[in-house]
Description:
Layout: E1 3-8, H1 15-21, E2 23-25, H2 32-40, E3 46-51, E4 57-64, E5 69-70, E6 80-81, E7 83-95, H3 96-100, H4 109-112, E8 118-121, H5 123-132, H6 137-149
Parallel strand pairs: 1-3
Antiparallel strand pairs: 1-8, 2-7, 3-4, 4-7, 5-6
Amino acid sequence: MNYWLIKSEPFKWSWDDHKKKKVEHWDGVRNYQASNNMKAMEIGDLAFFYHSNEGKEIVGIVQCVSGYYPDPSDAKERFGMVNFKAICDMPNPVTLADIKATKSLQEMALIKQMRLSVGPVRQKEWDTICKMGELSPSALDKAVKEHQKTSNDIGKK
């Protein structure tokens, strides 16, 4: 399994919006590196949902539930998208300030490539942030399993 971080400005698409919709496509990405990161995603990968600009914090966890496919909002047909399913809240949202203050997270793409909207997260970074957010591995596993049991969305576009 791979781990990722996806960013959204809450006034455009918030964590609450995503939770209400449950599964939604991640469209509008027009950066080649971010697009390549989405191409590398596999069904079942997990991602932090990060509020950019307002809040600047990790507020939830989503799961990739589709492969990469064309983004119909791209008139030039260069970019694509994947679908994400809301899995669970981050019990204690983890702020950008807290991430920057944590020595073991200094190499994270969120810090090194601030403008990147979809970026990779290393296993150790994932574990550290989940711990900071008071999300235990067992609680996350339980949330993922609950969503998989009730899902007919896995693998669909």
